[in-house]
Amino acid sequence: MDFYSALCAHYNEVFPLDPTVSDFVQASLELTPDANQSGSNILDIGCATGSLALSLATMGHRVMGIDLDAEMISMSNRAAANLPAGLMRFTPEFLVADMMNISKQFAHESFDRILCMGNTLVHLPDQIAIADFFAQSRALLAADGKLLVQILNYDRILDHGIMSLPAIETKNMVFTREYHMRTDNRLDFCTNLTGRETRKTVTNVVPLLPLTKAEVDELLLAAGYKTRNYFGSFTRTLFSQESFVLVIEASL
Question: Which H helix or E strand runs over 160?
Answer without folding.
Answer: helix 154-160
